């Protein structure tokens, strides 16, 4: 089942890159998604995929809230933090994690460290002292 989710993720990325839903482009996208190398060693649990997809759905309202917050309340402090990658993450799930973090206006992933950390840049309101 997770193989299908991986294929769908690759197709979604293809359509985001090309922005073309013609029959020829769909055939090319399916071909590219099937021809890209994939690892059978690391199998992601369906539960992990569903959790990641649910977090993306829940990030939509959060992104709008943060965008409005930034417009009306200045965020002048910048912080770079390290966040731990959840265990047993396949490359597809790591991509979804990075997409999720970067989707919200206040955060962006600067770097993925191979030893299991994301370097995340965030803007926040200055603490009153």
Describe the structure.
The chain is an alpha+beta fold. The chain folds into 2 domains: 38 residues; 87 residues, Ribosomal Protein S8, Chain: A, domain 1. The chain is 54% helix and 18% strand. The protein has 4 helices and 3 strands; from the N terminus they run αααβαββ. It has a 3-stranded antiparallel sheet, with helices on one face. Helix 1 packs across helix 2 and helix 3 runs parallel beside helix 4. The protein is globular, with a radius of gyration of 17 Å. This is Cation:proton antiporter.
Topology summary:
Layout: H1 2-18, H2 23-35, H3 46-72, E1 77-84, H4 91-103, E2 107-113, E3 117-124
Antiparallel strand pairs: 1-3, 2-3
Helix pairs in contact: 1-2, 3-4
Q: Roughly how much helix do the residues carry, as a percent range?
A: 40-55%
- The 3D shape can be described as globular
Percentage of residues in strands: 15-25%
Number of domains: 2
Count of β-strands: 3
Main beta-sheet strand count, sense and barrel state? 3 strands, antiparallel
Strand arrangement in the largest pleated sheet: 1-3-2
Summarize, please:
This protein has helices spanning 2-18, 23-35, 46-72, 91-103, and strands at 77-84, 107-113, 117-124. It is an alpha+beta fold. 11% of the residues are buried.
């Amino acid at each position: 089942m997770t193989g299908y989710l991986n294929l769908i993720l690759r197709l979604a990325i293809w359509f985001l890159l090309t922005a073309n839903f013609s029959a020829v482009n769909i055939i090319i996208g399916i071909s590219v998604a099937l021809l890209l190398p994939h690892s059978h060693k690391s199998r992601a649990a369906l539960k992990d995929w569903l959790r990641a997809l649910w977090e993306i759905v829940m990030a939509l309202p959060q992104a709008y809230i943060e965008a409005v917050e930034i417009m009306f309340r200045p965020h002048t402090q910048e912080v770079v933090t390290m966040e731990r990658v959840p265990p047993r993450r396949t490359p597809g799930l790591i991509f979804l994690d990075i997409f999720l973090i970067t989707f919200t206006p206040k955060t962006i992933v600067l770097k993925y460290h191979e030893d299991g950390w994301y370097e995340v840049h965030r803007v926040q309101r200055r603490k009153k002292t």
